[in-house]
Amino acid sequence: MTAFGNPARNEEEKGHELAASKKGGGGGGGGGKNVAFNTPNSAEKEIQVPQLKTLANRRRKTSRRLFVFMSVTFVLFSLALLGAVIALAVIYARRPTQLGRPIVVQLLDNRDQPVTQTSQINFEEKCITMHSNKTKNMDETQILMDYKAQFAAYLDVTKDECYLQRLRDTFDEDAESLESHQNRTVKMTAKKYVADESKLEKSLVDFVTDHQLTKHCRGRDMYFIYPYNSSMTVVNGTSSTIRKECSAIPCSSGFTIYICDPSAFQ
Prior knowledge:
By secondary structure, the protein is α+β, with helices and mostly antiparallel strands. It folds into two domains: about 100 residues; about 160 residues, no CATH class.
């Protein structure tokens, strides 16, 4: 009895302890549920708020970057468009209408020295331009052959003088002849021209021809030239001494111009 106690009482005490245990466990469980319920909510709130702030910051940064990118792109596009418009305006203002491809001809002067002549044909304006480089025997020359005005202007760049000559051939004839010499070596045919000693007035040249010729001469002194032939004689001399009587100026395409006083011929 003493060792094992009262069985009925023991059972009753076990019942009270079990009930107390269940009640305490229920309370603890309830408390545990509250903790388990509240703790995740608190953690979620503590984590979710920084995530929202980070997302908003990213959106703002993305918006700023997009704005900067669009602004820079717009500025660059505007500058490129402005540059293209200016370039097109310059090209249009300086355009040589309906120009053929450059024609390069290697010429040999009377001493068989090479002379490079570059030409272009303007089919709309009916004119031909030529440029010959300076050599030991020849000056640098720029030529404008204006077939509408029926005149040619020979600009001697080396001596800063310009010579005008009436054209004898047609535009089609000279253009065809020039194109046939493309990428060929041509022996120059010596031609002699006599120039008036008196300078031409710019207003007179503009009246007789057009402004293209005086523009080509670039303000240089202008002289009228005409072909020299053997029927011309020189006062107090002969045609064979013309080189001594006149100052000779070699020009491109086989032209040699002699500056003489027209009164010397009869």
